[in-house]
Amino acid sequence: MVLMRQEIGDVLRDFRLQKGRTLRQVAGEASVALGYLSEVERGQKEASSEILAAVADALDTPLSIIMGEVSERLAVVEGLSMPLPGRVPDTVPAELMSGYAAELVS
Amino acid sequence: MVLMRQEIGDVLRDFRLQKGRTLRQVAGEASVALGYLSEVERGQKEASSEILAAVADALDTPLSIIMGEVSERLAVVEGLSMPLPGRVPDTVPAELMSGYAAELVS
């Protein structure tokens, strides 16, 4: 069974890392407990719609973008699409991405 | 604040109506209480990931497709995209759609 909270957690963590933010920073800005956000990121807790909205806001990322990414990853898990070739690995932080991208085009 | 459960509820109901299925049928197949599914569709209850997966399964619709539609509607609500011109209204049941589509191309 494909579980959405797993994908949501992965995507939230990846966006956070890409922005170079810590759990503590995002939890603080979103006014959610750090332990709770950590559990959400690990797919262990369902995030309510209110908390999702607050976390998206703290990440300066529209919820539609987050859920679009969740949908794409679900499609991969469901075998409906393949990951893009040369796709940046999910957990690469922003500071490493420019180097990675440069490698791809070189 | 944009609430995801509202969009999820709308999308689940629209997919159900497009397939000409009743709440009772889908709730039965997904093994969830009818009243609960009804509340989910009205955006009054958060659906757990397990229930979302079961309802998607009962609707013969991959979760990625459902969440892709949720993402698109969130983008409209967030002002990031406009609904497609000539888009089929959200709650038109399947039996009416062929006529509607015919009207659009005539």
UniProtKB/TrEMBL annotation, chains A, B:
CDD domains: HTH_XRE
SUPFAM superfamilies named in the record: lambda repressor-like DNA-binding domains
Boundaries of every HTH cro/C1-type domain copy: 12-66
InterPro entries per the UniProt record, alphabetical: Cro/C1-type_HTH (IPR001387), Lambda_DNA-bd_dom_sf (IPR010982)
GO molecular function, one term: DNA binding
Domain of life: Bacteria
Record protein name field: Helix-turn-helix transcriptional regulator
Species name: Leucobacter viscericola
